[in-house]
Amino acid sequence: MNAFMNGADIDTAPFSPPYVVNRKLTLIRSATQLFVFVEEDPSTIDDGNFGGINPDPVTPGPIGNKPAKYHGFTTTFSFADGHSEAVKWAQAHPCEAGLAALESKS
Fold it and tell me: Are 41 and 35 in contact (CB under 8 A)?
């Protein structure tokens, strides 16, 4: 589940602001664009929240959870308005570039 959908402060505090933690239905502004559930990569399942991905590929930060890559590098997302989408990634894994950059710095 998206950590910003009433997630624990420990998972969302490093990113808030500018990101909003949606603790009430009335806080959801773009229900068609806000994912609630996502298939998570088995290697990063550690709790009930999905979060901790730095959205800026230029300055990669810690990657806490990775989306799954099933059925030809596809991940399924469900959104706050009730629809779902299967996203096919353009590269082998959407986090690989960020992981490689982090590993090269250590």
Answer: no
Quick one: tokens of 99? 């992981």
How far is the first Cα of the chain from the last one, in angstroms, to the nearest whole number? 30
Neighbours of 79 (CB within 10 A): 18
Q: Which tokens go with 92?
A: 């082998």
The tens-digit pLDDT sequence of the chain (106 residues) is 887 788 666 666 666 566 778 888 888 888 998 888 888 888 888 777 776 555 555 665 556 777 888 888 888 899 999 999 998 877 655 555 544 544 444 4
Residue 98 phi/psi, 5° resolution? -65, -40
User: How far, in Å, CA of 99 to CA of 103, rounded?
Assistant: 6
Encoded tokens for 79: 């959104």
> What is the rounded CA–CA span in Å between residue 1 and residue 3?
6
What does the alpha-carbon distance between residue 45 and residue 39 come to, in Å, rounded to a whole number?
10
List the domain boundaries for the chain.
Answer: 9-105
